[in-house]
Specification:
The complex is a heterodimer of chains A (about 325) and B (about 475).
Chain A: H1 2-24, H2 28-31, H3 34-59, H4 67-83, H5 88-111, H6 117-135, H7 165-183, H8 185-195, H9 197-202, H10 207-233, H11 244-254, H12 266-285, H13 290-318
Helix pairs in contact in A: 1-12, 3-7, 3-8, 3-10, 3-11, 3-12, 4-5, 4-6, 4-10, 5-6, 5-10, 7-8, 8-10, 11-12, 11-13, 12-13
Chain B: E1 2-11, E2 14-24, E3 29-33, H1 40-47, E4 55-60, E5 63-64, H2 70-75, E6 78-81, H3 93-97, E7 104-105, E8 108-109, H4 111-124, H5 141-154, E9 159-163, H6 171-186, E10 190-194, H7 198-204, E11 207-212, E12 215-221, H8 227-235, E13 256-265, E14 269-277, E15 281-286, H9 292-299, E16 306-311, E17 316-319, H10 323-327, H11 334-339, E18 347-348, E19 351-352, H12 354-368, H13 384-398, E20 402-406, H14 414-429, E21 433-437, H15 441-447, E22 450-455, E23 458-459, E24 463-464, H16 470-477
Parallel strand pairs in B: 3-10, 3-11, 6-9, 9-10, 15-21, 15-22, 17-20, 20-21
Antiparallel strand pairs in B: 1-2, 1-4, 4-5, 7-8, 11-12, 13-14, 13-16, 18-19, 22-23, 22-24
Helix pairs in contact in B: 8-16, 12-13, 13-14
The chains are: A mainly alpha (about 325), B alpha/beta (about 475).
């Protein structure tokens, strides 16, 4: 029952946001049009892919603050590879692998240096941003046009695709990771780690190695998000995506994950990403200035978590 | 099955275990009994691989046994069922039972096999009512215990260490647990069962060992000893005759400062009523987990409680039993810790007057004989005894009419102990009312005017200390009939 509420509540929130703006904008046919839907989805690809990795980390009881910087770094890496004449598929892989390497470093800092994830990844936030500026020589990197630029476009060149390829990639990866979290030994151990680390260790699970794997795998997703960022801007920009980690964490948390670990779902995180995307889009259509969006999203995050705490305390009282 | 010879363990200067011998056969339920702090938990932790003994040898199943850690102990078939359960509340029952040894193919969990194996283990116990797919955190505590036991069995445990397994259970669930234990015994599993409750021990165990002050002071067949004999082994003869202090005849005064009627704070504290007079030190005896701490915490408002409390004075002061987490701010200087409850006495317009703060602190430091470089010394660097005195000094500075002291002299050296006792008596002489929780019987007799005993959440009427004996307190505490 509890599990149902955890999914139903974000869905209801999403529908509420959509309904609200459909009414507020006064032209529901435009707000709900296919064209606008494509805009919203294309805008949310980067946060959604990041949220897939972040869900895993938060469920395991961790946090990663370096996502924005990693996106900037991997977008630069991808652009540089293209500029140096790499094949697009190789450049794409390079971006993803770069994210994975950063993840491994995060994981090792957390396990071998015994720095809490908040601090380890806060440090990485600075390091990755700095490395991105260094490898880009403090400039934007303009690669030659390739099909990578099509990944995150709003309107794909081939009509039958309906949405940008990046949207489909995000959907497929989200479905895959949802299965992995639910149905693999690895996935269940991620939950065990976040639920009660001491118990997991007492059962002979190598929690240190598990953490490194979690941050590394999540890093691959952040790397892919960086490729999407490169695709959207058609360039590698070392100063891009500042603060995106907060959007990503917010998406996961609005989707019902608990920052103390053990709880959370990919589906919820995807809905959380959509809630924020529709909020942004609706505010833009209303012509509200940027700062209004920021305030609204800030309030929504706190209310979503407060509602979750309230549910949890009621559930605790019942048992 | 399990043989221990001369197991010894020191923690710093204290001897926790002093040459323990123990023999447990397969299919035996062996009761390990003793007062709080007798060394039972230390012994269990050594067996479970939490830390090694300083000296002594262990054999398990005929092989030398020296676990490198908890995981290694589990490998060797020795499983520790903790007082606090070590389960993942968010995961399913089956996932908890088979955690670390999940059936899988190519990394994918074989959920059917997982649920079937867990169901088989549960059914073996006659506990097929527990759904292996249920979320573990939603189960009642007794069922969670079954989950933890099944986890041990899934790894072929040959020896189970059960530490106070009934302390959080209702009577009906205790029956279920005993059923479980008997089934385990009948399968040839050796069980070390720790409990304070003699009736329980008699119901489930055949042989026993009594620990006192880290030594084994008795053992044998339970059927051959009486409760009185067991209790005198636990208490020891030496404190039987400790005389009560000869108190100031004017104390306690007849003036009631705190009246408590039918106070209850579920689940642990069921009902407590008492009158506390000015100048009275009321000792609360009882076992750990019996609701003593809940009593003082609910009086201080840290826990939700119902009942009637009438206060004829000014303010409560509370000294937590958990010095490191609730008693002190270890990184701060002594002066801040001492004046924290009443900063206003040494502040002007929100700014703290350091000189005044230091003078006030030095005053209580002298009174309690706190050995420290000065009022600005960091509390965390002091010895345990001096830290505890600083915690008490905060209450002196706060100057409330009622002091709630939870284990005020636990884990401190002898000198500090007597300083603390003297201070408590002096506070009483000044007309304070004091409630003092203690697990240490000699201390209760030395310091308290009156004593009440908590038994499974029920507080006995308070009686003058001279009317109690150590035996009577222990018998009341463990719920034996006198």
């Amino acid at each position: 029952m509890n599990r149902w509420i955890r999914i139903v509540a974000p869905v209801a929130g999403l529908l509420g946001v959509i309904l609200l703006f459909a009414i507020l904008t006064g032209s529901p046919e435009r707000y709900l049009s296919g064209a606008n839907l494509r805009v919203v989805l294309a805008q949310t690809v980067i946060v959604a892919i990041g949220a897939i990795g972040m869900t895993m980390i938060i469920v395991s009881g961790g946090i990663d603050l370096s996502v924005g910087a990693v996106i900037a770094l991997t977008s630069v890496v991808t652009a540089l590879a293209l500029r140096d004449g790499w094949m697009p598929i190789a450049a794409l892989s390079a971006g993803i692998v770069a994210g994975g390497i950063v993840g491994i470093v995060n994981g090792l800092a957390i396990t071998t240096l015994r720095v809490v994830p908040f601090i380890a990844t806060l440090g990485m936030l600075g390091v990755a941003r700095g490395v991105a500026k260094y490898v880009a020589d403090q400039q934007t990197v303009n690669p030659p046009p390739t099909w990578l630029n099509e990944l995150a476009v709003t309107f794909p060149s081939r009509d039958w695709m309906l949405f940008a390829p990046g949207v489909w990639i995000a959907i497929i990866l989200a479905a895959m990771m949802a299965l992995v979290l639910r149905n693999t030994v690895f996935g269940r151990r991620v939950f065990a780690l976040g639920s009660n680390e001491a118990a997991a260790r007492a059962c002979g699970i190598n929690t240190g190695a598990l953490k490194v794997r979690i941050y590394a795998l999540a890093g691959l997703f952040f790397g892919l998000a960086g490729v999407m960022q490169m695709s959207r801007l058609r360039q590698g920009d070392p100063t891009v995506a500042v603060g995106v980690e907060l959007d990503v964490i917010a998406a996961v948390v609005i989707g019902g994950a608990s920052l103390s670990g053990g709880e959370g779902s990919i589906a919820g995180a995807m809905i959380g990403a959509l809630v924020m995307a529709f909020l942004r889009n609706g505010s833009q259509q209303m012509g509200w200035p940027n700062y209004v969006q920021e305030i609204i999203i800030g309030v929504v995050i706190v209310l979503a978590v407060a509602a979750d705490r309230w549910r949890a305390s009621r559930a605790a009282e019942r048992s | 099955m399990l043989t221990l010879r001369s197991i010894t363990k020191h923690f710093g200067a204290t001897i926790a275990l002093d040459g323990i011998d123990l023999d447990i056969a397969a299919g035996e339920v062996h009761a390990l009994i003793g007062e709080n702090g007798a060394g039972k938990s230390t012994l269990m932790n050594i067996l479970a691989g939490a830390f090694p003994p300083d000296a002594g040898t262990m054999m398990a199943g005929g092989q030398p046994y020296a676990p490198r850690g908890p995981a290694d102990a589990r490998e060797r078939g020795i499983a520790h069922i903790h007082q606090e359960l070590a389960l993942c509340p968010h995961l399913s029952v089956a996932e908890n039972i088979l955690m670390g040894i999940e059936p899988s193919r190519g990394g994918w969990l074989q959920r059917d096999a997982l649920n079937d194996r867990a169901a088989a283990l549960l059914a073996d116990f006659g506990r097929d009512g527990i759904d292996p797919r249920a979320r573990t955190g939603n189960l009642p505590l007794a069922d969670q215990q079954v989950v933890e036991i099944c986890r041990a069995l899934a790894r072929d445990a040959r020896v189970l260490l059960m530490d106070e397994p009934t302390s959080s259970l209702q009577r009906a669930n205790v029956e279920r647990l005993f059923d479980t234990v008997r089934r385990l015994r009948d399968r040839g599993i050796a069980i070390i069962y720790i409990s304070h409750f003699l009736e329980e021990v008699r119901e489930i165990a055949t042989r026993f060992t009594v620990l006192r002050d880290g030594r084994s002071v008795g053992g044998g067949e339970l059927a051959r000893v009486s409760d009185d004999e067991l209790i005198s082994m636990m208490v020891g003869r030496d404190i039987q005759s400790t005389p009560s202090p000869t108190p100031d005849p004017r104390l306690p005064t007849p003036e009631v400062v705190l009246q408590v009627r039918n106070l209850s704070a579920p689940p642990r504290l069921r009902v407590a009523s008492f009158d506390l007079h000015r100048g009275e030190v009321l000792g609360i005896a009882g076992l750990i987990g019996s609701g003593r701490t809940d009593l003082v915490r609910s009086l201080f408002g840290l826990q939700k409680a119902i009942g009637e409390v009438t206060m004829n004075g000014n303010g409560f002061g509370y000294l937590s039993e958990d010095r490191k987490n609730e008693g002190l701010a270890l990184q701060l200087p002594i002066a801040d810790n001492v004046t924290m409850s009443r900063f206003q006495t040494c502040a002007r317009g929100g700014w703290i007057d350091r000189r005044r703060q230091n003078v006030q602190t030095e005053d209580v430091m002298q009174r309690l004989r706190i050995k420290a470089p000065g009022p600005r010394g960091v509390v965390g660097r002091l010895s345990g005894g001096n830290q505890q005195k600083v915690a008490l000094a905060r209450l002196l500075h706060q100057d409330p009419d009622v002091l709630l002291l939870d284990e005020p002299a636990r884990g401190v050296d002898v000198g500090s102990k007597s300083d603390i006792y003297r201070e408590i008596r002096r506070l009483a002489a000044e007309g304070k009312g004091i409630v003092m929780v203690s697990s240490y019987l000699p201390e209760l007799f030395e310091v308290c005017d009156t004593i009440a005993v908590m038994t499974r959440g029920r507080l006995s009427p308070s009686r003058p200390a001279s009317e109690w004996t150590a035996d009577a307190i222990l018998q009341t505490a463990i719920g034996a009939e006198t």
